[in-house]
Structures are given as C-alpha cells and as structure tokens.
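Possible regression after last week's pipeline update?

I re-ran a chain I had predicted before the update to compare outputs. Posting the input and the new output here so someone can diff against the archived version. Not blocking, just want to make sure nothing changed silently.
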Amino acid sequence: MGWPMRWLAPGDADQMAAVYRDAVLSQTQGLYSEAQTRAWSQVAQEPAFRAMLKRGLGLASCSGSDLSSIEAFALLEPGDRLSLLYCRGRASRQGRANALLERLEHHARGCGCKQLHTEASQLSRPLLLRRGWVTAAAEVVVFAGVSFQRWRMIKPLTSIGFRHG
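New output (post-update):
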C-alpha cells in the first residue's frame, strides 16, 4: 500500500522526536542492550537533534489521509547524507521506510547528487543493503557514555551505462 507522504515542516519537530523515541524503544530489542537503547532514545531530546531537523530536508510518511500524523520520517542533512530514518513500531514493516528512501534518493539524484552516505544502525543496515547501499566501514561511536557499533554506508545514485559506438 502506498502511504501518503509530505515534506517535513519546522512545526514537525515534536512529532519527529516522538517517532524517533518510539522507533528506538519499540524495535531494538535483541539488537542493543538496555543501556544502549536508553542512551539512544534520549538523543531526540538534545538541542543538536532539533538543529539538524531545521537544517535538513526530509519527508514524512503519514497515517491514512491525515497528513498531520507522522508515522515515519527520513532526513537528508546535508543534502548528500541520510542522517535520520525512523518509523514508529506500529507502522514498521509496511514499506514506509523503503518508500521514503526511494523518494529521497530520487530527489537527491535530481539535484545532481552522485551518491548518498550514512551511518547505519543494526536496525537500518539490512534495509539499506537491500536497496543497494554498500558498507564502506564499521565504526564504534559513543552516545551518552555508551558504545555503539554502526556502519558507514554509501549509495551510488548514477547508473553505469555502456557506451556504444
């Protein structure tokens, strides 16, 4: 099913923070420790999170015809970096993240971007791999004093064609 999407607006920050927190708390069991989940879920309360939302370009996947209710979102910040991709637990595994990525990749390609990059969690990495992203390196980062493994990934946006002639 195609879900309605719209561009994110400055007034969406509270909903985006709520979606972020819900995604982390509802979907990370078995992938992260309790301490990691707790630390990660707090990131949306930091001023840097809201600043990134203001600078970025993002899309929201909304519930039904209600374009004010955000179920998932994705953000490019800067324009060649997928900085956020989160979906509420109740709305996960419905194709929302895939649809958001498809549209943002199309937008970036249209703006002349040759590739996107991101730092993927254990939660998002499988989806990105299915969408043609490539793992460039593994790394360990620290949030709120807790270590996390994540993967630097890239997605080429141009297709390589054969030249005839």
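Follow-up from reviewer: compared with the archived run. The longest strand covers residues 66-76. Marking as no regression found.
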